[in-house]
């Protein structure tokens, strides 16, 4: 017996036969794995498993997996379990969890939805520096990145301000002086700029 609410999931020709009260035998294919469980075989099935190949000896286990936090249970945990079950060893020792890249409305990018953002298109429209700045600005631990034309345009505008500032300095004779000692400045505004530059430099090195 097949409940009526599942009829839409059955092939049209089978539905017609069922409506005619004909006996239809339906069974599950015995040779198909669940999507995530088949993906769980990826660390070693791509290396020639179940054969003891040269690739298996060289590349399994690997060292690091880089992935998003939303599939830790669906994929990462299953890869660990499959590795332990079939090969008595985990496929990797470390997992680097990164942010998800979403569209501007906070939805996952999907070809079906048509909301996939092509970085090459953004580069052609706004420039590579604008995209780099937008990604750097949006990156952060424990938060998703919302990327789209509007946000990259803001990054482009900020990069333009930096460019105009540099051009203004150049037009007014600002140049690097060999052997310059920041501690030698006397004007208050120059001391302030040197201090801010030093703080920025320190924080950048601290983050990396």
Helicity, as a percent range:
40-55%
- Helices and strands, in order, run as HHHHEHEEHHEHH
**Overall mean pLDDT:** 84
Q: Characterize the biggest β-sheet.
A: 2 strands, parallel
> What structural class should be given to the helix and strand makeup?
mainly alpha
% residues in beta strands: 5-15%
What is the overall shape? elongated
Strand order of the largest sheet: 1-2
Number of strands: 4
Spans where pLDDT lies below 50 across 5 or more residues: none
Radius of gyration, whole Å: 28 Å
Oligomer: single chain
Number of helices: 9
| Termini gap | 62 Å
Highlighted features:
4 strands; 49% helix; two-stranded parallel ribbon; 9 helices; 208 residues
Write the layout of secondary structure elements.
Blueprint: H1 12-19, H2 35-39, H3 42-45, H4 54-59, E1 64-68, H5 72-87, E2 94-98, E3 101-102, H6 119-126, H7 128-138, E4 145-146, H8 149-171, H9 188-207
Parallel strand pairs: 1-2, 3-4
Helix pairs in contact: 6-7, 7-8
Characterization of this structure:
- The protein has helices at 12-19, 35-39, 42-45, 54-59, 72-87, 119-126, 128-138, 149-171, 188-207, and strands at 64-68, 94-98, 101-102, 145-146.
- With 208 residues, it is mainly alpha-helical.
- It has a domain at 100-172.
- The protein has a two-stranded parallel ribbon.
- It is elongated and about 95 Å long.
- The N and C termini lie far apart (62 Å).
